[in-house]
Structure formats: C-alpha cells, structure tokens
Fold each of these.
Amino acid sequence: MEVIIQPSPGDCAATGARIIGQLLKGKTEAVLGLATGSTPLPLYRELITMNQRGELDFSTVTSFNLDEYIGLQGDHPCSYRYFMEQELFKDINIEAERTHVPDGLAVDVSDHCRAYEQAIRDCGGIDLQILGLGTDGHIGFNEPGSSLGSRTRIKTLTGKTCEDNARFFESIEEVPRHCITMGVATIMECRQILLFAFGEAKAEIIAKAIEGPVSAMVPASVLQMHPEVKILIDDAAASCLEHADYYKEVFAGKPSWQCF
Ligand code: F6R
C-alpha cells in the first residue's frame, strides 16, 4: 500500500491522471474501473483536459463503474450512468458501447450481477480501479459488514450513506435504499487500485482503513491485502494518520524509476 499525501485534491488528481496516462500509453485496450461521487471529479476534469489536448486517447478503453442505485433509470439526473455521461464520457473520446454501469432497472438483479461479473472477465479483468471512500468505510457500496469475498450484488445502503448522499437529491427520502455494487472480491481482483479521499470529513476513516486492523466492518481496510494500491489523499484527509511523516518521506525519496 503506497500512501501519497499531497497538499490539495488538484495535486492528487494530477498524480492520478499521470498514473492512468502511463497505463493507457502502455496498453491500447486498457480496462478502467470508475467511481462516482464528489471525490473523482478533479481527476475526471484532469483526464478531460489531457484527452482534449491530445495527450490521452480513450478510443479503445473499456470502463466498468462500481455501482448504481436500484430504481433509477440511466437518464435520471441522480443515476450514476447520468453522472458518468455528464462528468466524463461526453467530454472524452470513449466509445459508448465500451462503457458499463450496472443497470438500476434490471428486472432480474441476480442475473444482471452475474452478467456484469462475466463482462469484466470477458474483457480480461480491470487494469486500474478508481475508488472513493465512504465516511463509514465503504468502497463501491460495500457497506460495513460486507463479506470480503463478495461479488457484484444488491446491497442496502446504511443510514449514514443515505445522509451523505442526500446532497445530490431533493431530500433524503428520495435517496434509493438499494443499489447494485461490485463486490469487495471483485474490487480486489483489479490489477491496480487508486483510492482517493479529500478533506477532514474523511480523516478518521482513512486512518482506520490504512492503519487499523483489516475488518469487514471497515471494508476499505481490505486494501491492505492488495499488492498494487495507491492511496492519494490531501493533507486534511491525512490529518489522523499516525505515520503521515513517514509516508511523505517515502514518497519524497522515491527512486526516479518508480516515479510517475
Ligand atoms: C461511488 C462509490 C462510493 C463513493 C463514496 C464517496 O461510485 O462507489 O464508494 O466513492 O461514497 O463518495 P464521495 O466521493 O461523494 O465522498
């Protein structure tokens, strides 16, 4: 686990975009795992700029999103399909048919989840997964108590997640209680993971995820078991870490061949 602490979300986004750039330049048919929410927005803006400057090509990239609310159609302004169209897809040269977001209106949810897993396998697996972090420790929508061996499936959101996400809706009552999410094991199979977290509100849970015990009660803590994880956080999100100075020293002293 490589913890990269930078002064601002913009700095983290620039670093993340460079890592994604390296992947895309080295692999034409790269498969990206994408997230929604506030956290990846600076990264998506960076990727859009690089794409529009001709520095990044998404024409042969395939993407899989982590999750979607059950009951929301793809053109609903609060659906994650809509979010992705607005915040990234419409501004880059990705092929629409290569983008995948779970279908919130799937009639047979179990069948849809199995097919989603199969589609990921058929593309050769996810090369790089982008993650945000819930204030309750969730990754994707794997809420506390999620099996560390879980696959794509239906989950019930916690009251805390509904509260956190109510800002995107007219009222908290409108936040769907159910979602489809990639499982913890699905995420752990991605070859590389970038988790981003910004601001003081994420500081306590970041410390638990990075320096606490691995536990299903803090699903993000399982990332400690993944060999290729980078945690990109700003100073505010790093403020409860016991070993923040050490992580900064490690990053500052990286040999040039390890830099990105
Ligand atoms: C979104 C997702 C969630 C969010 C998390 C943080 O696709 O999977 O895990 O990353 O809820 O949300 P923000 O970034 O809005 O704080």
Amino acid sequence: MVEYAMIIDGQKIMTQATVGVINPAIEEAFAQIPVGTPAHVDQAVAAARAAFPAWSALSYNDRKARLHQLADALEANMSELMQLVTQETGKPMKGFGDIGSGMEVGGAIAWLRVTAETELPVEVVQDDDEVRVEVHRKPIGVVGSITPWNWPLMIAIWHYAPALLAGNTVVGKPSEFTPATTLRFAEIANEILPPGVLNVVVGAGDVGAAIASHPDINKIAFTGSSSTGRSVMQAASGNLKRLTLELGGNDAGIVLPDVDPKEVAQKLFTVCFHNNGQTCQALKRLYVHADIYDEVCNEMGAIANSVKVGNGLEEDTDLGPLQNKKQLDIVCELAADARSAGAQFLTGGEAAAGPGYFFLPTVVTNITDGTRLVDEEQFGPIVPVIKYSDVDDAITRANNNPAGLGGSVWSRDVERATELAARLESGSVWVNAHADIQPNAPMGGMKQSGIGCEFGYWGLAENTDIQTVKIRKS
Ligand code: ADP
C-alpha cells in the first residue's frame, strides 16, 4: 500500500508503526502514514527555526517566485492530487456545481498565484523636513498551521502561502482524517523550498496541542471547530502567539419574495450542499419568504432527489459521503432531533445503507429557530428552510446566533438586498451568491467564527509584525 511520510528538515520521516488513511466512501484504508508525536513537532520546530534566517533574508521576489513554482508543481501533479483528495475526503472529482477535487486543487493553485502577487509595501505615515515615519512589515518567525478535513489541500495552501511569502517558516499539521494530500504536497514542495522552510507532521489533537503551546512557534493559523479554536487560543497564550482563527459558521441566507423560485432554488441548492454541506461557509440556515416558500422548497427537494450520491471516484457522482463517522453521527442526531420537534422532511433524512458514511441529501421544512438543526452547525447535507414574512424579523433571527462567518440576501432588487446584507453580523456577506470567496478579498469571522482574516493584503499582513521606523532628520 502506498505510504506518505512526514517532511521534517527536508527529510522524509516514517515511523515503524503506521496508521491507515480511510476512504470514507468504502471505509477502507488506501494509504499508510507514520505515527506523529509531540517529539516530531519539536524536531520540526527546530528545523523551521534554523531555516528562518536564510528564508527571511531572501528577497520578496525570490519568495514570490518559489510560490509560483509551487503552483506550477501542483498543475503538473493535478490529476494525482485530485484523486488523492477524493480518496481521503470522499468528495467527487467534479461534483455538483463543480465543487469537487478539481475545485480543491484548482483553488490551491489560484490561491498560490494570487498570494504570490500580493505586496507588502512600506507605508509612509509622515515625511517632512524634520521627520520620516515608515511602517514596515516583518516576518514573525515560525508559523504553526493546523488544518481540518473538509478542504485539506486548499486550506493548507491558505495557511502556508502567505506565511512563506512574508518570510516565515512553517510547521504544518493536517487533520488526522485527511493527511495524505498534505503530505504529498509537502514532498513536492520540498523539491522547491530549502530544507526546514516547510515541515509537515501528522497526528491528532495531542500533536495539534503541542504545536499550539510550543514556546518556539510565534504564530498559529488554525482552521477548525470553535471549541478546538478556544483550546488553541488558550494553549497559544504561553508565549503570546499571534493567532488567525477560522472557526465554525452557521451562515444564514435570506430569500426575498421577488426572486424566480425555480432559478434561485438551483443556486441555493449548490451553496447549501457545497462539499456536501461540509464547508465553513456553506449556507446552513435558509429564511425564505412565505409567498415563495412552498415553490422554493419543492424545487430544492426535486433537485435533492435527482442528484447522484456515491463514490467520488465514479465520474457521474454529484455528492459523496460525509468525511468521517463522527460527522455522520452528528448529522443523524440533528435530523432525529428535528423530526421529534415536528419538522417535515421533503427528502432524505437518513443515512444510506453502508459501507461508506453516506447521508441522503435532505431538505427540511416546517422548522424554525430554537431547533438544534437551525441553531447549531450541521456540517452535512441537510438544510433547514425557515418561513418568514417580515424581513426585519428574518434579519434579527439570522443575527441571533454566536456564529458570524457568512450571510447572504437573494433578490432582484440588488440595491435593497445590499442594504439588508450590510445588516447581517458576519465577516462576509453576499448578494445573490454565497460562499463566493476569492483570493484577493479578505475572509474572516465576526463573533465566535474567528479572529483575524485570511486572503489578500489583509491576510498576508497577519503573517507579519509591524515595525515602525521613525527617522529624525536633524
Ligand atoms: P473536527 O472535530 O471536525 O475534527 P477540530 O477543530 O477538532 O474539528 O479539528 C481541526 C484540527 O484541529 C485537526 O487538525 C485536529 O487534529 C486539530 N486539533 C484537535 N484538537 C486539538 C487541540 N486540542 N489543539 C490543537 N489542535 C487540535
């Protein structure tokens, strides 16, 4: 069986004991990886620290060129990486709305290229006869990256690319559920980067905690659940690490009565079932006006019944399995709770016969706030559709949640929708779209969905410390 090693100081590191990486569509291992430990974190941090002076001393253009080389290498290995992503996450190669492994690897390439072209110019605050005041951006040191299982390659690139461009070195840890693609990427990257600049270790929460608390790591980029984010923040306090936390969401979408129900239902389905609902910014609570409620729900139900759920390696699969059993159990529990609260299931509502962690795409109506499926993040292929008649009330309900990642308003009246969207308490809002992120615009969470942001100048700057330079001319 194929093996993927950790990469520490440019070396491949295997351990005598290995762990299987499970394909969630068949519940069988397709690869073996080493057993990572906190001792490996220590080695990786030492290597990253040693590599930092030379890497940070390279010119910006040199580091930018390396990021483009990484993008070239991903392009050259795209089909292998897509297959690996599908094997370890379960997502289809193409998938419904083209949200599959092709989007994941293609997105990783796009983010590398756009990040590479992002500048960190010196800003001049004052320049007169007496004084010149400049604001410089300096690399922080060693960045620890902890990534989740839903978009393993793309999110790793979101962390690594800006950290490296700014002049930091990196110790990364992928999710224990999806380590293979990240390890393969690290192997490819080590042909391009000097030893120690990018190290990738593996392991579960104990290895993540060793990164979060490590005294010689200076910043943590973390993407995952809000509860683990809190642990990371606590562990990072020892040496006051800088933090970028991208945490859970419970994104609301508000649909006004002036839309074409059939047309909007197709778009809504795509963003609700984005990566089978396993995307932080998937649309997770839908508020639809009473005038078009039945039509929109029925249309979404018809699409849910028509999509093909199956093994992502089969070409015509629209939606794959949940990535892991724990997530399938959460979705089953929320569905059971909604059913007992009297909600109506237009489609699905249950796990499919195994093997594989499959849950049928599910549209739930006759449900409202106060039900777990609405109030909590389901992170799966089940969407609650809530009826409203007063849009101010819908906005209040959308905001009445600790999460604040994304939100959207859907209407033909773009101006009005834009005004309403601005009232949503979330780090990103969209009009007639959702989860529509791009590498040059910042993405971050309000409230308990995170701290700081990623992407563009703003995300890149989070990988730096500010140095103010004040020069008295006389
Ligand atoms: P999930 O529960 O969906 O797997 P998590 O937020 O727990 O989501 O996982 C995201 C990442 O955080 C994974 O790489 C995981 O191994 C890591 N992790 C889990 N627990 C901790 C912890 N206490 N400290 C640091 N990282 C952790």
